Amino acid sequence: MLFDKIRIANLTLENRIVMPPLETNYANEDGSVSQRTIDHYTRRAQGGPGLIVVECTSVDPIHFHPHQLSISDDKFIEGFARLAGAIKQYGVKAAIQIQHPGRQLVHPSLQPVAPSPIACRTVPKVPRELSTSEVEELVERFAAAAIRAREAGFDAVQFHGAHGYLIAQFMSPWSNKRSDKYGGDVYGRATFPLEIIARTRQKVGKDYPLIFRFSGEEYIREGRSIEESKIIAQLVEKEGIDAISVSAGVYDSGEWTTPPMLMPRGCLVPLAAEIKSVVSVPVVAVGRIHTSQLAEEILQQGKADLIAMGRPLFADPDLPKKAKEGRHNEIRYCISCNMCLNSLFSDEPVTCLVNPDLGREGEPEVKAPQSKRVIVVNGGPAGIEAARVAALRGHEVKLWDERPKLSHRWSWLLKPYIVNRLNLLSKLGVEVEMEKTITPETLAAEKPEVVIAGRGLSAPALSIPGLEAVSTIQADDILEGKARAEGNIVIIGGTNIGFEVANLLVRKGCQVWVIEEGHILGHGMEPLTRNVMLRRLLGRGVVFHRHARVTQVESGSVTFVDQKGTEQRLPFHHIVVANNWEPNEELIELLQEGDYEVIPVGPYQQPVQYIQAFKEGTSIGRSL
């Protein structure tokens, strides 16, 4: 069924896999289509989905994000024509999503606009309320953008009514407090998208496919519920929408817009099923649907008509082709780590933890003029990337590590990544040895020309009265299985390492308290994953104290001062130290004695640092 044809209005798709609109930050600064954008979508089209929906594209010449595509002027049509043509040459249908950010505009100098002057938590600038006439002008902007998309050769247009952007803001009782025709009950709040659809239909004609994407649930207090969304779905269908894509959430509930790995697979499918029960047009399901088997199951159960796979096509653009041919064991599966999203949070071009070629489709690695013998030692994620790129460039590469496994400090996140990279390194002929004794002598025996060495990490010494008199356990020893803890556990340090060890211990039945001096719990984790993990730990009984400082340790008791300045005591059977470790140069200094070039790398001990690790490793590999 997944590979059966389906029609959206008069548009026939070769299969039911949809690549939904995912931002890339690949556009030129003026919003025009870059060659990198074309290369990116061309590569996805080669993999064979039925439909590609190009990422959210601004209808407004002013209110758009940096490096976001814009279709606000006729001057952009030529670039979009090249993009649409590049996608369609492979028999894949091409659509484009048109959008206005409203109050969720991220811009250093512009004031956002919105239905009402209410800010969201994530983008705290208070927006300016749009006048009635300005709203009517925006209706015309959306319709004009749709005309440009059709002229550029796109087969369909999708209106972005999801994730808390402007159309969604009008539909939500949380953000729309207007008293004119665009406010009030659900029917009044739906007026803006309905006028956009009606005006666009007038301009593009009755046969041009129009798709509407919206959040079935916003998952915020006073937000739009699935019951109101079912009403809106029926209204937009009646107004002329030919398909509905059902997502969830807004910026303030981002774990539903881009579900991280801790969310259930197919977590948004029930919303699609609810919408499908009240409309007759095709419905698209999305939300951690990463395998063709799960996609097939959803379709067979009648919960949706099409399946959106966004991040999975970042991870492996050939997923549709491989799945159709039954080559499931060859698919490089998305792990929902959200490093792609974290790239965007950092205003960087999007990258992928399991697909190092994402965004570099037009930049194949060039062979080095001369092959060198390269050894990477204790390199962590940056060293792994350096080894991979160096091997691609034709160098003879070995990877050594003194530990029993790679990057244990990210173990809960990096297990799938490590498996992926080890497979890649094996295919490239890189020899990997774990628990390797690394000395100048063992290296000299291999006669390397270049040694890429990871900077070391050392546990910091804590100056807490009485701590030296009790036995403490390093979090890393628990994560590596070298030590055990049970009973009442006090964890000193509530960053990413503290979260990881707390999760492990509470699942084993321990009572866990976490004391963190800083303001942010789970610092160093991807934000959406952190939010889900925090809720999970709280639900399992973990107690957190932030802005807190341990002042005394005695036999069986820890004294700390909480954020109100109140002194408290906790009983403990074990104290686990989970602070971030301090870099040291001991290995680097030792290896400098050898007759080879030493290139230091890292260290990286936080998941959010992967982008920097990826860049450093790639840069080193290309420099050889």
- In CATH terms, the superfamily of the largest domain is Aldolase class I
Strand elements, count: 27
Helical residue percent band: 25-40%
Helices, by number, come to 21
* Assembly annotation: single chain
Shape: globular
Return the CATH topology of the largest domain: TIM Barrel
Strand order in the sheet with the most strands: 3-4-5-8-9-10-11-12
**Named CATH architecture of the largest domain:** Alpha-Beta Barrel
What is the terminal separation in angstroms?
49 Å
Helix-strand category:
alpha/beta
**How is the biggest beta sheet arranged?**
8 strands, parallel, barrel
Counted up, domains total 3
CATH hierarchy class name of the largest domain: Alpha Beta
Overall pLDDT confidence:
92
Question: How much of the sequence is in beta strands?
Answer: 15-25%
Unreliable runs: none
